[in-house]
Design brief:
Blueprint lengths: L9 E4 H10 L3 E11 L3 E11 L18 H14 L7 H7 L15
Antiparallel strand pairs: 1-3, 2-3
């Protein structure tokens, strides 16, 4: 689901929706639509958008439009966050953050 998701959004499958609903904890779920899932074909998928009674403010997800290059938005956001830290980044740090290349993000250490 990670490869078909969007920044700041929680993308879930029908089986996850079924599990969350069975817990009867007030999870708020909206349909995303049919999505091609690796190894599973096309399935209905959903966004987990909240939980009743959860009042903590969350960052607003960026607006994503069809054809929008969201990796560029994520790259700019990541650079902004990293500029605010005093920590020196190393290649090992990028590995800890996950494979940025797989996400379509290219950042050279000297660009940060």
């Amino acid at each position: 689901m990670e490869s078909t998701g969007l920044p700041y959004r929680i993308h879930v499958s029908q089986s996850t929706v079924d599990t969350l609903r069975s817990l009867n904890e007030g999870y708020e779920i909206i349909p995303r639509g049919k999505t091609e899932l690796k190894g599973k074909g096309v399935e209905d998928t959903y966004w987990l958008v909240g939980k009743k009674g959860f009042l903590k403010p969350l960052p607003k997800p960026p607006e994503i439009k069809p054809g929008f290059n969201w990796p560029d938005v994520l790259t700019r956001k990541l650079r902004s966050v990293l500029r605010g830290t005093k920590r020196t980044l190393t290649k090992a740090t990028f590995k800890e953050l996950g494979s940025m290349k797989e996400a379509g993000i290219s950042i050279e250490e000297d660009e940060i």
